[in-house]
Amino acid sequence: MKRQLGTSELQVSPLTLGTFAIGGLMWGGNDKKDSIEAIRESIAHGVTSIDTAPFYGVGLSEEVIGEAIKGTDRSKVEILTKFGLVWEQDVKGTVAFDAQIDGKTVPIYKNGRKENVIREVENSLRRLQTDYIDLIQLHWPDVETPVSETMEAMEQLLKSGKVRAIGVSNYDRALLEEGLQTAQIHSDQVSYSMLNRSIEEELLPFAMEKNVGIIAYSPLERGLLTGKYSNGTGTLSSDDHRNGYFQQFDPQKLNTLLQALNDLASAKQCSVAQLVLVWTMNQKGITTVLGGARNAEQAIHNAQALHVQLSDSELNQIRSFIQN
Ligand SMILES: NC(=O)c1ccc[n+]([C@@H]2O[C@H](COP(=O)([O-])OP(=O)(O)OC[C@H]3O[C@@H](n4cnc5c(N)ncnc54)[C@H](OP(=O)(O)O)[C@@H]3O)[C@@H](O)[C@H]2O)c1
Description:
The chain is α/β, with parallel strands linked by helices.
């Protein structure tokens, strides 16, 4: 049932819990009790891999995971975290974007420097209350740091046993090829959904050829592909980044897709969200799919997608809905 991540020793569940929303920042906040329940229920229902990042809630997402898994057999859970998006103003790097932290506008930096990689991993280990990380990933490419420097830092962590596997995120084919010249990168975490299949052209075939696992993020397009936001974003709070994010999608095209998915989901006695997750998990070259969930109900519902089977003809039928 679990899947091998690239050439690493690490096995991950086909669905991984995404905890960006659990951090609250940019997602209109979140309730800690709900977050802890989401994590515990995911694990209890077979979603044993959890993806996070220091940036998610500026430390909060990792802290909540640490609390939620305390007392759990560590060997039964895989923790995937990242480094390279820095909010500490004494560290700096290349300005990536601004975030609202505690009511202040703060620049967030990209930083793949070796000393920063080592520093961030120590902080993550402390927040997660663990002595190893299953997969460490560079969150975003940092153009000011040589790719080889970041790869060497991750290899050092691998040798020390502090991490079990090394990966990148948001790397295109060219960057992945460059990174592979220094280190055996195990995975690339990239955006991939029914509405965003750009990786299918170059990155995905290259990653398959090189045996680099692809970790697909935002498969539900941040909630849009559950169908619950098809009538607009009126229910989102003003500090939720999705007010802007959702604008890129054509509402008419989206509704046509959701209708087609809804008909198939009804016939299969599952939900649209489950159908979307299971379709994404079954695409060639995709090792695991990150499904975000912010409470127990969403977590259990998504985990149940692991039991939904799609035949080849159903997979092709869905692809016919999404071909432009
Ligand atoms: N590497 C990167 O740069 C990067 C970027 C983005 C994401 N990620 C990772 O990928 C993960 C997943 O992506 P994502 O969180 O952006 O988006 P997603 O998984 O596409 O969507 C998550 C959202 O969908 C809604 N949802 C999920 N399950 C639901 C259910 N069963 N019923 C109703 N609504 C449901 C929730 O919306 P509500 O909040 O409205 O309830 C949830 O917050 C992240 O958590 C993070 O770990 C990585």
